[in-house]
Amino acid sequence: MMRALVLAPMLLWAGAAAAQDHSHHHAPEAPPTAAQEADPHAAHRAQAATASAYRPPALTDADRAAAFPFLHVAHDHGDPLMWMVQADRFERTQDDALAWEGKAWIGHDRGRLWLRSEGERAHGKTESSLEALWGKPLDAWWDVLAGVRHDDGDGPARDWLAVGVQGLAPYKFEVQATAYLGSGGRSMLQAEVEYELLLTNRLILQPRIEAVLNGRDDDARGIGAGLSETSAGLRLRYEVRREFAPYVGYEWSNRHGRTAEHARNAGEAARDRGWVAGLRFWF
């Protein structure tokens, strides 16, 4: 009798626990319909058709303005006319030379006019280049360009026909390569690669390398055939605003072959390196 009195509460507690456990289970699934039994993949095909029928809305000028607020838009419909001016490098070197590299463009998505300038003023002499190029997009990342270039500075001025590409390579390397053809059988290839490493949202480290090759000697300008010049730089900038960023860096430059010989004969160094400080801006 005593054993029954002890076991009865335990049995009642076990039954309540089992009922509570069953109440937490999901309700059994409804049996498949006759149509589902005949074609078990019908539901999956209907879901896929619904997903493939979705089309994202078309981009509007308001969307472009929100994504690219720095672009200057001339009108608000169709393919708008836009423009931009940017100085990638505007700097003083350790030996008190002034160097710059910049570009400006104006046009539409289907084509743009590019102006590019690069140069240096040191020891009372200025060497510069100016290019005017028409660019057509190959895809979302690359443009092909063709136009003219004018070089001025030490020695006679030179004019070139130019064709090249610029864009964003895999892993976000910015690439610019241009081939030039001048009078008298002169030719030149100039290539530049740079990368931006975000240390923070505003602090950016930018390595950059550049190489110049010439097809033949140009003694009047102190240039030899083959690989004539290479340069590499490392710049750390702080974006006070996205369009205004002071920086400091270190630059290496080397002249090679007969170009180095011409430099030494003129009393200049074939190799140069030192600190730089400057400003990167756009508007």
Automatic annotation (TrEMBL):
Keyword Signal, does the record have it?
Answer: yes
Q: Which GO terms describe its molecular function?
A: copper ion binding
Keyword field: Signal
Q: Which InterPro entries match?
A: Cu-R_B_prcur (IPR007939)
Its Gene Ontology biological processes? intracellular copper ion homeostasis
A single Gene Ontology CC annotation of this entry is: cell outer membrane
> Where is the signal peptide, in residue numbers?
1-19
Read off the Pfam families from this record.
CopB
Annotated region (Disordered), positions in chain: 22-53
**Keyword Transcription among record annotations:** no
This chain's protein is named Copper resistance protein B
**Native species:** Thermomonas brevis
